[in-house]
Amino acid sequence: MAQQAGEHRVRPLRRDAEMNRQRILRAASQVFTARGLQASLDDVARQAGVGAGTLYRHFPTRDALLEAVYHTEVARLAAAERELSGKLPPVEALRAWMVLFVDYIAEKHIIAPALNTFVGGPSKLYESSRAQIRDAIESLVKRAIKSGDIRKDLDAFDLLRALIGVSNVASAPDWQQSAKRLVDILILGSRPIR
User: Domain span at residue 51?
Assistant: First the structure.
């Protein structure tokens, strides 16, 4: 098939280049979580064990790196839905995913100041990941409803809103543990009335 004008082929990265990219993303997540706005790209390169040139080859700007870290974390959370569904009973998979979501929100709160530096603020970035998160929780809820563990009238988005609401009061040092206890309350409140 002939290539259309304006189309660009994206060559897959060599194995070593892909490994470097993944190391940079893991290091960036750790560095931005630990240091927020104080994190430099040199800190990220050092943590990843690569040179600054390698980092900039993969992520030419700070915004490109922040965006890639964010999308990687969202993809991990979405993939956890499939993994948990494959190995746990429906309601346990839902609970486990909700606890992971609390952890995800905790990390996102820590790197939020860094994400706010992203051109146009974080809302465009968050918007692009909303469907992945919504699809994951909807799949888990549908599975739990089908098994009879969760009420048929439960709206998956209501659970998501509750989790986000809980995480928005992340001022107390133990809020994350409190949020995880609230996951159990949400699950219990979602059970069918017998």
Answer: 14-60
